[in-house]
Amino acid sequence: MKKADIESRTEELVMPIIESGGYQLWDTEYVKEGSDYYLRVYADKEGGITIDDCVLISRALEAKLDQEDFIDEAYILEVSSPGLTRKLKKDRDFERSIGRKVLVKLYKAENGGKEFTGILKSFDKENVIITADEAADINFTRDNISTIRLEFEE
Questions:
Q1: Residue 129 CB coordination number (10 Å)
Q2: Which of the residues 42, 92, 101, 134 could staple to 26 if both were Cys, CB 3.0 to 4.6 A apart?
Q3: What pTM was computed for the model?
């Protein structure tokens, strides 16, 4: 089974758990690090997710994964917070981050640089617009963005 299929199927299995607990799903990833495979689920909730929340999600998901048994390799399941400086990958991540401070890193320089910080103003399929510290809007093409993540705000 392909990585994307494993992540998609895991997301389908975890969503009812996430929704019933009042959590938000940020991401699922299936990666190989060294000789081990990891299936990671990143969840959050208003006010922050706790270790007890992660344990609850992990145990419920583990039961579903054991029942479905669709991953051939042995893997380690991890459920955690996406962190304060979480990456924005999917449209839903961008949507809930409108108005928040972000760091945009580019593959190739635009507007005189490769890194920009500002407030996420809007996005669509092709573009992301931030309002920079100089109060000017900057438009980036999504295919030139290597990463975009939330910035820590005090």
A1: 15
A2: 42
A3: 0.71
